[in-house]
């Protein structure tokens, strides 16, 4: 891991098809009453399509998994800045991806800053941003 | 009753509004189920930055509807997530209890090519250890579309 260089690509993390049942459970865990996550009729009424829409934190979690699988655990992600660009619907297949921007040392720790993103396969970007990850021992 | 949309002076006044706050405990069963929903490695436990937002918003002391109402909006007005910036100063622990405190950091009226007129509101929520030390922070933004009202 100490040979990390700017421009290195992280191994892609593929997700999907995204599960409507997991969204429903997540709504309960978050006590999130917004029906777009569990009621197709509500999604249709709002003109947002005909499939329920994934929670933002789940989308973010896929990017964290990309980083954690590469760096050795989600706890190694020290900072994460993400911009919401689009929605993920039930049944979508996704690709989380990242590229190393720079490597630095702080208090004896090797920190890698990455550009990261989440896209719907064959569709639009969902998230884009940057992350700082601790790598090595 | 429809809440009144704040004018720009009122938006300025809302900056600095503090959340009532509260406490959040990372119960093992809850962390496990969240990780299952997120398809995350169970070994990650509460280590993901995503848990900062989940804990902070669960214990911010107001419901989402109440937060929307501060800015003259309802769920049906379609408030949208903008950005989220999370910083972890120390790992979050399963079984750990954290105090949540936060405030409205910014509120500005803007015009976008696609969105039209909207209000961009930034809020910050912090998780503190029981010792008082800062464990993690998340700063998020919400877009409130205005032209439809």
TrEMBL record, chain A:
InterPro entries: HotDog_dom_sf (IPR029069), MaoC-like_dom (IPR002539)
Stated name of the protein: Acyl dehydratase
Family assignment from sequence similarity: Belongs to the enoyl-CoA hydratase/isomerase family.
One matching Pfam family: MaoC_dehydratas
Domain MaoC-like: 18-107
Superkingdom of origin organism: Bacteria
UniProtKB/TrEMBL annotation, chain B:
Superkingdom per UniProt: Bacteria
Gene3D superfamilies recorded: Hotdog Thioesterase
SUPFAM superfamilies given in the database record: Thioesterase/thiol ester dehydrase-isomerase
Protein name: N-terminal of MaoC-like dehydratase domain-containing protein
InterPro entries per the UniProt record, alphabetical: HotDog_dom_sf (IPR029069)
Annotated organism of origin: Saccharopolyspora gloriosae
């Amino acid at each position: 891991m100490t040979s990390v260089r700017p421009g290195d690509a992280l191994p892609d993390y593929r997700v999907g098809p995204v599960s409507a049942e997991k969204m429903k459970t997540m709504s309960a865990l978050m006590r999130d009453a917004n029906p777009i996550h569990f009621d197709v009729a509500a999604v249709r009424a709002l003109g947002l399509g005909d499939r329920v829409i994934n929670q933002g934190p789940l989308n973010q979690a896929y990017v964290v998994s990309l980083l954690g699988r590469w760096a050795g655990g989600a706890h190694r992600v020290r900072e994460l800045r993400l911009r919401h660009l689009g929605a993920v619907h039930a049944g979508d297949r996704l690709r989380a991806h990242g590229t190393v921007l720079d490597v630095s040392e702080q208090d004896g720790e090797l920190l890698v800053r990455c550009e990261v993103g989440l896209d719907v396969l064959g569709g639009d970007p969902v998230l884009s941003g940057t992350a700082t990850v601790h790598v090595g021992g | 009753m429809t809440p009144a949309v704040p004018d720009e002076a009122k938006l300025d006044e809302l900056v600095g509004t503090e959340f009532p706050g509260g406490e959040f405990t990372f119960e093992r069963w809850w962390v496990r189920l969240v990780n299952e929903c997120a398809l995350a490695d169970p070994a990650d436990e509460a280590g993901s930055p995503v848990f900062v937002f989940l804990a902070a918003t669960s214990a911010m002391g107001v419901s989402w509807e109440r937060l929307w109402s501060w800015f003259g909006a309802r769920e049906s007005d379609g408030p949208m997530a903008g950005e989220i910036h999370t910083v972890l100063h120390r790992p979050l622990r399963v079984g750990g209890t954290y105090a949540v405190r936060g405030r409205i950091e910014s509120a500005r009226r803007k015009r976008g090519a696609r969105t039209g007129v909207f209000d961009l509101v930034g809020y910050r929520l912090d998780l503190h250890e029981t010792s008082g030390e800062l464990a993690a922070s998340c700063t998020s933004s919400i877009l409130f579309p205005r032209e439809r009202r």
